[in-house]
Amino acid sequence: MSAHFPSNRNILDVLGIIFLSLCLAGVPCLALSAGGRDCLRAGDTCSSDDTCSPRLRTLRQCVAGDGSVKLGPGARNQCENAMTALLSTPLHGCQCKRGMKKEKNCLSIYWSLHQSVLHGLSLVESYPYEPEERGSDYVRLASIAAESEVTTVNRCLDAAKACNIDETCQKLRTEYVSACIQPSARSGPCNRPKCNKALRKFFDRVPPDYTHELLFCPCTDTACAERRRQTIVPSCSYEDKEKPNCLAQLRICKADYVCRSRWAQFQYDCQPSEQSASGCKQENYGACLLAYTGLIGSTITPNYLDNSTSNVGPWCSCAASGNHREQCNDFLTFFHDNICLSE
Ligand SMILES: *[C@@H]1O[C@H](CO)[C@@H](O)[C@H](O)[C@H]1NC(C)=O
């Protein structure tokens, strides 16, 4: 997506250099770091600085693995010092762009600064992805639970037609459909990783005006709803004979920087709130839908649960969760019973 904003990037470069110069000159950089600096660039800038570079290296060692390694008091102290020092560099407040080149590398830097081991030091509520800058017309068009909107036209069919006319949408849709229905000799009936990769590409690269209209079009009958449910080719992208345990799936998700980030973003953007008119704490339904599609093609891919409702959720169950039952139900509730997602 970075290619869409060439001039912005140049401005960011210039600003970045100014920020860095100020920081090096001893001016506190905390206030300067909020505005859209990507972690990959911030990491590069840091690596070429003799003071910053060893601190970042230390921090990355501190959070190696899943970050749950217990650190001794000495190491912990060192880690906290490195972390504190890095908070006054452009790394503080850095984010990544969804679908960007080297997204995983960028996110690994982001998470170095946001690991749970050092939780006491993570300052504000934060989320890994920069907000989308494009217009949000699609918010008007899209709605997960728009059954009440009885229309004479078939919006789902119109959405498919619209996608066929747009070059990128048509191309990437064809790509994922063929990746998801093509049987592969080696991995059985379908190649799930390939299918999911193509799905992620579709939802990361095609403007939401098209993708959201396809996936969230309103349906009044089961044929339409079934077609909508089939949009992401469930039989290949996530369905299995048995539903795995949700927490096990979430654990796999969190071990992957991209999935972990998509999940964190979804939790942030789709956080429900009884107090707000939209049902969303962030008051941005468009951002919530965008975060939702960010999960498609991951271990916790959500989809419509059936062809008679607009309920959505991932393919997993909380049976056999032992004493983590409540935690597991909280996870499912975030999809099944989320007023932000369904309003
Ligand atoms: C709706 O789902 C049911 C159960 O999965 C299935 O038997 C039925 O054929 C579906 N309806 C349509 C119209 O596809």
Automatic annotation (TrEMBL):
Residues 39-118, 156-236, 246-340 form the GDNF/GAS1 domain. One of its GO terms (molecular function) is signaling receptor activity. Gene3D superfamilies: GDNF binding domain. Keywords: Cell membrane, Glycoprotein, GPI-anchor, Lipoprotein, Membrane, Receptor, Signal. InterPro entries: GDNF/GAS1, GDNF_alpha, GDNF_rcpt. The keyword Glycoprotein applies. One of its GO terms (biological process) is nervous system development. GO terms for cellular component: external side of plasma membrane; receptor complex. Belongs to the GDNFR family. This is GDNF family receptor alpha-4a. It comes from Stegastes partitus. The gene is gfra4a.
